[in-house]
Amino acid sequence: MIVIGAGPAGLFAARALAGELSVLVLEEKARTGGAGAMTDGKLNLSPRIGLDLEELRITEEEAGARIARIDEAFLEHGADRTLYGVDKERIDLWLDRVSWVRHPTPKGDWDITLLPARQRHMGTDLAHRVVARMTESIAGDGVSFSLRTKVEEITLRKSGGPFLVRTSKGRFASRYLVAAPGREGAYWFREVARSLGARTRWGAIDIGCRVEVALPVYGEITQVLYDPKFLFVTPSHGDRTRTFCTNPGGRVRVEIRNGCRLVNGDALKRRKTPCTNFAILNTVSMTEPLQDTTEMGRKVMEFANFWGGGDSLVVQRWGDLTAGRRSKAETFHSAALGYDKMTPTLPPGRGVTPGDISFAYPGRIVDNLRESLLLLSRVIPGVAHPSTTVYVPEIKFYDTKYDTDRHLETNVPNLFVAGDGVGKSRGIVGAALNGMLAAEGILRKEGKA
Ligand SMILES: Cc1cc2nc3c(=O)[nH]c(=O)nc-3n(C[C@H](O)[C@H](O)[C@H](O)COP(=O)(O)OP(=O)(O)OC[C@H]3O[C@@H](n4cnc5c(N)ncnc54)[C@H](O)[C@@H]3O)c2cc1C
User: FRET partner for 256 with CA separation of 20 to 30 A, picked from 21, 51, 210, 405?
Assistant: First the structure.
């Protein structure tokens, strides 16, 4: 059988199938690990983060038990043993602090909520070793990996298989397929899946910004909760936003997607910067007259790049944003404006243009991002310092949903899907859990589970 993609979803599917079936993993890149396992490698170990229990139709208890096995697998292959989010006394102090500053919303919930979670951090510099060891042991258990092998086409002669898989290195036939193409391969695979008859629908998309602050501003909380998850309900629109992917001592990074620039962030384990970055994401879904969230996200990304001068991120100091003026290169580090307090890790010049986010982004999203940061500043006042730096566009494209059963088998018999690219997860651990579910589905069909 074939697994497409060697990200966490594909690797954990292959791992669970190793020794039971003959497994070939096809990966376009020259290495395994996919997007995140090769970058920052924060492992979110809470069933409420990075996966949607309803979409997966599993209980919190079941997810918790599987996450424990995933964590164990990462540890076995050398992940750092430091666990964040376990110091109950200090977490309670944070929860207490939030409880004193939150306000009720008209819908009956709170405008700011802190969701504690257990987390580990592998680090961009060490995650690749963990992934390499894991790949080696999966290969040792009998799984074959074909790297630099791009799957180009999948066809089906008759229902139930076998699937005929055309790749850059030749053709393969397979009774089962686990497609785990990640966000990068999502739209290629969506077209392929539709041509095979798979039912898909549009899901929500996350559009937001990356915020960068001086390390001490956020240090008190990140020592307890490495990647603190704050949830907001914004006052003007009642929309839901959240903090995401915090990188204490980290770097803001550029991610290229379809020729456009997106912002992202990571952190090394061994070398720290004097800054912390995190995203604030606004979940957007569409109903009428359009539901195509992919196209919407693409247009937002292109327009923001256009506003950056054609092919650039837009960066703005919080002091400029709140004063209603654009940021400029000449004043970007101005001591008179307080901007010398924090030197961004991705300063203007390298694909980043100082400008005005309120021109570059949809109005409602700018309102939501601005209000979210103000809500956060009730708990962590320093985030609203004028030197705080905001970058756009940050967009998470996991907006195609597939109708699947409990083991992620689509309506096309023997076609299983897993991971971020098919809208079933939003992180390394969630993707790995998907891979396990799909593998179990196949083993059940083979009478081996
Ligand atoms: C910069 C960055 C930092 C991140 N940091 C974190 C973090 O700290 N913690 C966290 O939980 N998440 C993080 N993420 C998110 C995380 O990367 C994803 O949630 C996770 O990798 C999804 O796993 P996946 O297996 O679904 O897809 P991916 O990891 O994207 O893997 C999919 C694989 O499929 C391959 N592929 C696609 N199409 C084809 C094709 N046609 N033929 C062959 N191969 C194909 C791709 O090359 C890729 O290797 C980060 C992401 C980025 C970009």
Answer: 51
